[in-house]
What we know:
By secondary structure, the chain is of the alpha/beta class. The protein is 40% helix and 18% strand. It has 13 helices and 14 strands. The strands form four sheets. It has a seven-stranded parallel sheet, sandwiched between helices. It has a three-stranded antiparallel sheet with strand order 7-6-8. The protein starts with a strand and ends with a helix. Bound molecules: guanosine-5'-diphosphate and calcium ion. Calcium ion binds at residues 8-9, 33, 36, 47-48, 199.
Amino acid sequence: AKITLLAGGVGGAKAAEGLNASRYRDGLSIIGNIGDDQAFHGLWVSPDIDTLTYSLGDRINREQGWGLAGDTCQVLNGLQQLGVDTWMQLGDLDFATHIYRTERRQRGERPQQIAEDIAVANGVNVSLILPTDDVVATRLRTQDGWLSFQDYFVRLRCAPDVLEVEYHNAEQAKANPEALAALTQADLIIIAPSNPILSIGAILAIDDLRTQLKARTVPAIAISPLIGGQAVKGPAEKIMTSLGMRADALGIAHYYQGLIDTLVIDSCDQHLQADIEALGIQVHVTNIWMKTPQDKERLMSEVAELALQTT
Length: 311
Ligand code: GDP
Ligand code: CA
């Protein structure tokens, strides 16, 4: 069976690793998020794509959930000594990825091809797809005006209240044919338990991708990133609240209404089942906190089997 996963960074990578370890790995395609991309020190950094790549290649720093295992930060130290702002954490080995990516982009090569080649070089053997080759930048409006994603997320540690989110250039961006094909050819589309607004929202801001997801004839299932109204990691519930949304699995269901058939929620959120079903979304209740490799494989196999009705 062919499964296409929409994925952000850390939550996306957990779902991707679970599917990659399951018997569904052969037909697996992953559409990642490029809304967090930003230039640092003249280099193009693509944090969510790198998190997927390093996770699937088993090179990720497991404690942090991003960056490369065993990496050092001499380059950053050197830059700091030169008086450069170094709040964006970039490891020495990690810099190699950014240098390589930037050089090829400057030669005019397709970002999709570059991402594929970096994935292969890292030992990834599932298809990693960018939603678009164009630049789409997630930006957040706070009391102090508009911020770039990394300014908000890393420099300010998600402290300011988010009043508005925009996906800059999404209307002009052209969906990659690989992304459209992954959606049209899938037997099942899964939305990872990623930040709905910052990660999945940035992918679906590209009109042709959202339209294709809506037009599908196969099941689409999302896994809630919120458990008991809280994110496992990151600002999801904080942002949903400041944007005036309900910050729990029901709020997630509202956000994905019209895009999914089923929402997978945690056992502790079972009391929300009837309200979610009233939105026309089926509910599957299970343990959705993925702490170990076994948790990832178990949950993702369960989700796939639920839709594909095979055992
Ligand atoms: P980011 O780009 O690194 O911020 O990562 P994502 O957008 O892919 O994922 C962030 C979301 O993943 C957060 O809202 C977390 O609540 C969610 N998340 C992380 N780990 C888990 C998990 O084990 N289970 C579930 N259900 N959600 C998780
Ligand atoms: Ca991210």
